[in-house]
Amino acid sequence: KKGMNLARRAFFPIALVLRSVPAWEARALPAQVRSYQRSQGGMATFSTNDATTTAEERAEAAAIRTNVVDGAAAARAAAAAAEAGGGDAAEFPAAKIDAGVFKYVLIEASDPASGSVVHLVRGDLRAAYHKDAARATTEALAAAGWPYKVLGGGRINHDEDAKSILVYGFSYGFPWQGDPQHGIATQVLKKAYPGYDSIEWTNEGY
């Protein structure tokens, strides 16, 4: 009996960080999720893949979430970046992700030279938190004088062998303001990976 209680206490925190979707609900999910759901006996389970969040992480994410730059400051930063040999649109590819399952962020940025708005998808297998997936790009955007906002985040399951990508979940550090915009991230990825067989998204999971 004592052993059973210890096992329950050990399992409880694990259960808290898993999100399971019942079979009836999973019918609305993409085929990639439904296939996994069938392999799990009627439950589609999404792993947290490390830590969830801390107060410190949320504060750091809030500090880098937006970069508001006035016109004059943006022009100065863009000129300085150009002199240093950087800061143009080519420096910021639309998609930059790893293979595997990892945290990702969707960033909206404005090119001060052309005024055009671009969406950037960044996913890093090494990122313990979503801020870690965003930081390198947000720092580079700020240095180049590009206004930006991290719209939100989630996770990506990128299978290079199967040529498939699934975008899903949410971010504690960069919560979506309104409905999740995985659809935008998916469109960016479809352009970046035109030869893939499946690039889909769902709001389910974490």
Could you explain how this protein is built, in words?
By secondary structure, this protein is an alpha+beta fold. Helix content is 37%, strand content 24%. The protein has helices spanning 2-16, 23-26, 31-39, 55-64, 71-83, 130-143, 182-192; strands at residues 19-21, 44-46, 66-67, 95-96, 100-110, 117-124, 148-159, 164-168, 198-201. Strands 3, 4, 5, 6, 7, 8 and 9 form a seven-stranded mixed β-sheet that branches. Strands 1-2 form a two-stranded antiparallel sheet. The longest helix has 15 residues, at 2-16.
Search tags:
206 residues, alpha+beta, seven-stranded mixed sheet, two-stranded antiparallel sheet, 9 strands, 24% strand, globular, disordered N terminus
Structural class of the secondary structure composition?
alpha+beta
Provide mean pLDDT, rounded.
78
Q: What distance separates the N and C termini?
A: 33 Å
Please provide the count of β strands.
9
Q: Radius of gyration from the CA trace? A: 19 Å
Which range does the strand content fall in? 15-25%
The helix count comes to 7
Biggest pleated sheet: 7 strands, mixed
Outline the low-pLDDT stretches.
2-30, 32-49
Helix proportion range: 25-40%
Give the overall shape, derived from the CA principal axes.
Answer: globular
- What order do the helices and strands follow? HEHHEHEHEEEHEEHE
Summarize the structure in short.
The chain has about 210 residues and is of the alpha+beta class.
